[in-house]
Specification:
Blueprint: H1 4-14, H2 17-24, H3 31-40, E1 43-45, E2 60-62, E3 65-67, E4 71-73, H4 87-97, E5 101-103, H5 111-116, E6 122-126, H6 132-144, E7 150-153, H7 163-168, H8 193-202, E8 207-212, H9 215-223, E9 228-231, H10 245-256, E10 261-265, H11 271-279, E11 284-287, H12 289-321, E12 334-336, H13 340-343
Parallel strand pairs: 4-11, 5-6, 6-7, 7-8, 8-9, 9-10, 10-11
Antiparallel strand pairs: 1-12, 2-3
The chain binds flavin mononucleotide.
Length: 344
């Protein structure tokens, strides 16, 4: 097990196909799912030499919170489907590594249970439910468990049509799986920018808006008080045929023009992918499936191993690029390969 691909292959072999389909699959023809990974192959590095890189640190801050790595754990639902301890195991591994973990509304562990797993930077991923009172109660519970920001996911007015799940009979929500805060079908499809204003006003924590893919929505998010924008297509699981996360990043970064932090996810499988995201203007990147692979293969130890592999890859990549910290990675450290050259 020396890289993320090894973990994903081992997880696919280990976990029941009728469950792993939910973790691995995307929507429709999975064009966007594939594009997320492929986008990283269309940028190459421009490393700088003869820089003193005897001390390299991957540490940074996200919304003021110190973290050990510019790669965080993206929210992924229902982790007890692939490990008996689920989110608690992931939280222990991420906490020990000092890595930010974003906990899904569709967690199979309570926030109190996750808090008991130990300290660690944690954010709550929020689905606004049809029931507003339960939404507020959910945020309050996460705050009491020490979570330091709310990540509102806005790309799921409806659940994407995931054909692998249909073919293999994956039932969502799965029967007999306890989801303490909600299931997907309680998510509000009537959500608008007015609701974002409502959350902003009700809630004292920093607000991250996850699922933005256009300059238009990035501008609106900033105008509505977002503290950070998370560029994402939900891992290719929602509208098939949208841009890869990395491809949508530059226009969002341009529109935001330094007014808030910008993150990106989708298709990160290598530390060098994270460095490309930083070069294109992201403050941090997030990944889900790599950690799902680690959790499925080895529980807490598996997540810890994937975290350490990716951290080492980021550190080595920084050094070889001629950078000693994430914030030194600049636009000049990458250039497009074909076909972007032709489009330019
Ligand atoms: C199995 C699975 C469950 C997910 N559950 C959620 C969720 O509950 N809330 C959410 O905002 N995003 C969810 N996502 C999307 C991830 O947060 C993230 O945007 C995406 O998976 C990143 O792509 P990657 O898996 O290629 O790293 C889920 C993704 C997967 C693969």
């Amino acid at each position: 097990m020396i890289n993320v691909a090894d973990y994903l292959e081992a997880a696919a072999a280990k976990v029941d196909a009728g469950v792993w389909c939910y973790f691995e699959g995307g929507a429709g023809d999975e064009v966007t799912l594939r594009a997320n990974v492929a986008a990283y192959g269309r940028w190459r590095f421009r490393p700088r030499m003869l820089v003193d890189v005897s001390e390299v640190s991957t540490a940074t801050t996200l919304l003021g919170t110190p973290v050990a790595s510019p790669l965080g754990v993206a929210p992924f639902a229902m982790q007890r489907l692939i490990d008996p301890e689920g989110e608690v195991a992931t939280a222990r591994a991420a906490g020990a590594a000092g890595v930010l973990m974003c906990v899904s509304t569709l967690t199979t562990s309570t926030h109190a249970e996750i808090a008991k797993a130990g300290d660690g930077p944690r954010w709550l991923q929020l689905y606004v439910l049809n029931d507003r009172a339960r939404t507020i109660a959910h945020i309050t519970e996460a705050r009491e468990a020490g979570y330091s920001a709310v990540v509102l996911t806005v790309d799921l007015p409806y659940v994407g049509r995931r054909e692998r799940d249909l073919r293999l009979g994956f039932q969502n929500p799965p029967p007999n799986l306890h989801l303490p805060y909600a299931n997907l079908f309680e998510n509000s499809p009537a959500l608008t920018w007015r609701d974002l204003e409502w959350i902003r006003a009700e809630m004292p924590l920093p607000l991250v808006v996850k699922g933005i893919l256009t300059r238009e929505d990035a501008t609106l998010a900033v105008e509505h008080g977002a503290d950070a924008i998370w560029v994402s297509n939900h891992g290719g699981r929602q509208l098939d045929g949208v841009a890869a996360g990395l491809d949508a990043l530059p226009e969002v970064v341009d529109a935001v023009a330094g007014r808030c932090e910008v993150y990106v996810d989708g298709g990160i499988r290598r530390g060098t992918d994270v460095l490309k995201a930083l070069a294109l203007g992201a403050r941090a990147a997030f990944a889900a499936r790599p950690f799902a692979g680690g959790l499925a293969v080895g529980g807490e130890a598996g997540v810890a191993s994937v975290l350490s592999i990716l951290r080492d890859e980021i550190e080595l990549g920084l050094g070889l690029l001629g950078c000693t910290a994430p914030d030194q990675v600049a636009r000049s450290h990458v250039e497009p390969t074909l076909p972007y050259d032709l489009l330019a």
